[in-house]
Amino acid sequence: MILKKGKVLPGNVLKVDSFLNHQMDTSLFCEMGKELYKLFKDEGITKILTIEASGIGIAAVVSLSFGVPVLFAKKHKSKNLVGDFYTSKVESFTHGGVYDILVSKDFLSKDDRVLIVDDFLANGNALVGLIDLVNDAGAVVVGAGIAIEKGYQGGGDKLRERGIRVESLAIVEKMDSESGEIIFR
Amino acid sequence: MILKKGKVLPGNVLKVDSFLNHQMDTSLFCEMGKELYKLFKDEGITKILTIEASGIGIAAVVSLSFGVPVLFAKKHKSKNLVGDFYTSKVESFTHGGVYDILVSKDFLSKDDRVLIVDDFLANGNALVGLIDLVNDAGAVVVGAGIAIEKGYQGGGDKLRERGIRVESLAIVEKMDSESGEIIFR
To answer: Which residues contact A53 (CB under 8 A, 6 or more apart)?
Structure first.
């Protein structure tokens, strides 16, 4: 699908909004769910965690393969938050600045074994923020299931070195916006 | 599920974040998809449209019953937008102010027959904005499939009077934050 419908734009941008993160091909998401279930089925996963907005559709469909609920972290501009939330901070590479992410304390506990699902993994900032949230709750991060990893940005390998199990369904190693060529790891 | 897990809070707030719009019970969303398919199956729907963020999970799972892609409108603070988007404006009752919603022109055309799916329908502002977007594209709004309509806020009935087919899986007619009682239409 990446080769067929993805577009390489200047600035190392991979445009996949026709099937992944604006218009969503949910039958593809079903196949992604089956593959992630194959990889993580023995891990006793109790919850899938993602982050708004573009991770939600994938995580929702993937959760059907696991038969567990999905929780999505909400993004807020940094400010004081009212209520009982686990929060952490994410630095945005694309938009600049720092934002808070939060999930209600009602929905994560020390008994949870969490699979994090997201559409993209680039520098890994969002994933690190989500891992911090889960750790704050005393729950276990079983791993991360990612649709597309930008291997050349190094975030995935940094997390693997920390011992996090990161399974990316596609890892783009190199792209050329002139020729449109995409090379996978 | 609303009676079992919903909570009525002061200010006519119905908290359903344990299964609908923060933590998401996607097996319930499957049942919602089957019911909406039963209602709309003869309408030749080609695309499901929702709005970020809390509509995305429901729309993604519901789309599996229809076998069509999902498109989600993105929210932006009002500003000039670059690129080819259909846009419209939505007045936010909860957060105040006006924001833009947008979808890429690549993914809506005059041949589309669109079902709008969302978690809540209250005053109907978001739904009106989405209908305007679809009309701008020259596409047809077949109707709206809503998880929970707040009947007492009147947005749904106003749209029905305009001839829009609005199918809400639950319509809350009245709530009492003292007793916690919820009365359905």
So the answer is: B52, B53, B56, B72, B74
